[in-house]
């Protein structure tokens, strides 16, 4: 099954003519992603790696009514507009790669998207991959393999690192989702855990958290409240990060008394979720669990 | 970006909040004249406009019983350093006699995807401490972002703080003004700690506004605080930012470079896990060019705390050959040589490794092995 | 059955201590409306015609958890706040009597209410009455009688006038709703027609429209599209009103080429809805229809 | 409240829209000096700032080929009357040579409970006529009020108008500016008819903003247009508004008073239905006091068009005795006597009727009978 994106996913790339958009369109196509159209205002009629470009999503949909997912590479200044365009044109999943979107704008479009039953992944995220089916994101496809582990993460490269150790040891992934490193994201751990819960293919879930905010604490509470039926392993980055400093991600900051590493670890372990000491030990816990 | 207290007060006042009568004096102004003309009534408070925590304890807030005394204090304060930051401006205000000190803030509510109001009748102190010791003393109320903060919500919070009648109305107006400021200026935080009550009035003794850095382009009306004056960054962090590097200074001696915030943090943690102490966080991000890698490596070669350097790259979009080229280029230009251990896997791994090894640098594939080598080198 | 309000309606009066609020609380109580609480900020602890007053709706609900409907008499400057308070406290129906609420505010709260599944009646309306069951409004109760005619109207006194002719001739009403005279109202004719459609008690519907806007035209289209199963009679006020002039109600103005009397009559008659020449002939048409 | 063209242009310009270079000159200013100093380049357009429709045809817009000619025209225009309204200000602008004239407006969308953009490449003329004759020439697009007008929506409209590239971007910015103005100022309408295109620029030749009267309290920054200058009201309507009466002047001779807008309109219609012609609409609203009734009746006694008066009251909240008392009080103070026919039913009907009859006025219960009596009296 996989979650969010699969073999039925038909992608529109917004900002396809930009450097990033064009580059990753190529990589996604190589992975096998079904990209049906690209959109860049003013560039309608062009063609990027064989993908036809339109001025608007509306026009793209006229020729490609099967499109159901959008990935956005548009620069921060125009990204919010692109997100609304995707939502209003009925995209079911909108993956926002763009970094540096103002948090007030994100708050507005994330709430709007929820009211329209659109899932926003990101902003400031690597996207989603359902290995062997489709990749709607910028992650290196080769580190992932089809399988039964669901991954949900606040971090990009760390996800690849952990996915790769899993893949090497034979533990493929049903889906891997980077929810994004900003304080406000369209999906949080709970949203994704809920999806994995209902996905038969997913046998265990890996949560990759980091300092800042309380998404991990809320996930722990959710796991307790729902008596979560699948094993969950966590890793949390930033044990050595000092309070009050943004660690690269806008959301990775210990402030207002919340976001501490220790609180997150405590929250998870208290509900029976094992927290790996290092990213490379995640696979060891998975081995133990899957053995059971 | 943090705004100075006087800026925060001006903005809040323009939306209807009450602040003490006062005047801002700059280094380059005639302090005597400015204070004489201002016509303030003593006692006065002289407050250094520096963005450091614990300004009061560091001598940045002083009481003056006369205009003359205030002039004296202001003259001394201007140009002096508070926690290493030069005082460019002071705010001289009429002191407000008061008993109770309250806390109120509006900030982003990550969980509910909206705003959240925090308020407490135990203001004037470190609110994080209050939050931990007396969680019951902090009132929290989430605000729907679509709807905005409405009067009835502000009133409910005011009632919990014990306000009534006209005072409750004024508190309601204050909160609505704070929310307006938050929305208008894309603020991450709008805070007053403390505010107090005088008759029916609510008076903000201190005020703090933090603007979302990503939204600064939308606010040309806000004067940018020079990065050296923000009080947020160490000298080396300032240097890094000026060079466009994402760098945080830490207390250890192992310089750390990674690609991606999560992986870089995990690398720091790994160093620490195996007994070392990271000197910094330096994230070259996704798809770094050799130019950026070179800049980052050179920076750590100059950064005195970093005695050894550990570079941990998992190439996805980032190409290992670009990373390797950057490292070599940095070493060629470097004034100083430091031990460099590189872990390099992923896209173009082979090319990268061969470039490094040609230059006598071993490239590890296993990060744990690499870390152990760093620590034993 | 009746619609919107009935014998299970439990009312909170917001702005109960004001002149209007207090006066109509008395009249509603006399009619038999179950008013459980009043709210006026700062007047908590008071008592109006035996109804306890609270500072907030939240407090009122603590003592009267059965309240499900609010009626708002708060002056325009504070009315919007009162509406949000009612919605956020879970009121299912909010009747906004207040006139002169800025249209942008109304737009905001009407959209918000719909997202929260709250029905706003008004603003600038006489309210709702389900004769014999409850009255949540300012209409004179004695002109209505329990029966099978549903009334929906943009006008207050004209509704009383027409209801009275119906009542005198023995045609009681299931419910009568004044949707309000402002350009933006929480409910339009279509919303109410839809409710009457599903209400067994209602055998026929009287629509009382007026010039301005296109609510009548849309209602006509709805009647056609749904093959509306119940007879509908309309009366439209303002045949002699000149274009470009506001006729008392903020919404009663012919402007931007829309809102003409003739267009409305045409729209209704073209879908088989009879339009009465005068308010007093509505009852004649009803007689004919009910006879059939 | 309608804003003057120059106000609308100033507001839109402050949000980034382009308008012709120009200057506003008041009656009490030195026209010569102002125009000399302004440094405008002829040809110029001199536009009377009056809020009447068809200002151009009435001589309120004139072309001048030199500064001198513009001065001459401005001097003549100031203080003159356009459709009965005195010209207090003129706007002198550089004439923009242009071929095409476009229309664009944002207004309230009653049906969708949001905003709606209307645009057409057939601007410069009566847009209502275009809408009726060539409905296809009007582009309509509803805007979700929660979300606001977004760039992609503006672009889609611009494309339909045939704009491309930089011009499309400028049109997008214009629409976003117009929407911002609409929201910021609680406008019912923000319109430009016409605007034109010059190179890549969009230039507003005319602009119109109507503010929601109910929201004026929230906008102290807007200078109130004196009611006599709004061009919206006849002399008697102005008088009525100053007295707090809801009154619209019509062309007939039967004065009409009703309680409630719907009933009052219905009463007018009833008069017309039975062959008469209403002289006005006068709504005393719900729960009218005898004082208000008296004021309304006296007003119609003075209003020369009303030869006879028909008062139609259905007492709900309105008490019939109060109405009756008001009528009698008005008659006692009146200079002039006119036939008055009263239809009175509802709350306190008996008391009301007895008060009237004691004073020799018959009170009808049946409105149709009452109307027929009015028309035969």
Helix/strand layout:
The complex is a heterotetramer, with 2 copies of chain A (292 residues) and 2 copies of chain B (377 residues).
Chain A: E1 11-14, H1 19-31, E2 35-39, E3 47-48, E4 51-54, H2 57-63, E5 69-72, H3 76-88, E6 93-96, H4 103-115, E7 119-121, E8 127-130, E9 134-137, E10 146-153, H5 157-168, E11 173-178, H6 189-197, E12 204-210, H7 215-225, E13 232-237, H8 261-270, E14 274-276, H9 282-291
Parallel strand pairs in A: 1-2, 1-5, 2-4, 5-6, 6-7, 10-11, 10-12, 12-13, 13-14
Antiparallel strand pairs in A: 3-4, 8-9, 8-11
Chain B: H1 5-14, E1 22-26, H2 31-38, E2 44-48, H3 56-60, E3 61-64, H4 67-77, E4 81-82, E5 85-86, E6 89-94, E7 102-109, E8 114-120, H5 127-133, E9 138-143, H6 151-160, H7 165-184, E10 187-198, E11 201-204, E12 208-211, H8 235-242, E13 246-249, E14 254-258, H9 261-273, E15 280-283, H10 290-302, E16 308-315, H11 320-333, E17 340-346, H12 349-358, E18 363-364, H13 367-376
Helix pairs in contact in B: 2-4, 6-7, 10-11, 11-12
Notable traits:
heterotetramer; A: 292 residues; alpha/beta; Rossmann fold; seven-stranded mixed β-sheet; 34% helix; B: 377 residues; alpha+beta; Dna Ligase, domain 1; D-amino Acid Aminotransferase, Chain A, domain 1; six-stranded antiparallel β-sheet; four-stranded antiparallel β-sheet; 18 strands; 25% strand
